[in-house]
Design brief:
Length: 163
């Protein structure tokens, strides 16, 4: 199993947020707060990190984030979670995680299926990942990958000619 570092992208996210005025938030299910913990470690987080909605229970997804009932291990859910988080937390950059952490399948999806939603200055996207390992390793891997994807999207937003 490769070494995973859930916080490896946080310094770069913190620098981008500081330099380019991003406010950052998260919505988590699968990762249960690990993304939030990593972001809170970033330099100057009090200035740019607004917080997280940990929506492990489906009712929290529905009632707080505005997710529509249906499959929760899906890109649709990740997108609705991240869009809801951006609104609730009043941020212009957000990341969400949902999926099947294991050890068994969920909603017919194999363990290690992860969906990441991204919201950066109005642009929304989703990514499906397939991660190996036990539930703890899946959470660590999902946290690292989700933050890496957030970093890429933030970098794209500041280098885009539309900005």
């Amino acid at each position: 199993m490769p070494d995973r570092d859930p916080t490896k992208h946080v310094d770069d996210i913190a620098q981008l947020a500081t330099d380019h005025g991003f406010s950052v938030g998260a919505a988590e299910s699968l990762t249960g707060g690990a993304v939030s913990s990593a972001l809170a470690m970033g330099a100057g987080a009090a200035e740019w990190y607004h917080g997280c909605v940990v929506s492990y229970a489906p009712t929290v997804k529905y009632d707080v984030l505005g997710v529509t009932p249906g499959p929760l291990v899906s890109d649709r859910c990740a997108v609705e979670m991240v869009t809801g988080a951006a609104k609730v937390l009043e941020v212009d950059a957000a990341v969400s995680t949902t999926g099947a952490g294991g050890p068994g399948p969920e909603e017919g999806k194999p363990a290690g299926t992860v969906h990441v939603g991204l919201y950066v200055r109005g642009e929304v996207s989703s990514h499906q990942l397939m991660l190996d390992g036990d539930p703890g390793e899946v959470v660590e891997g999902a946290t690292e990958k989700a933050l890496g994807l957030l970093l890429q999207a933030m970098r794209s937003a500041v280098t885009s000619p539309d900005v």
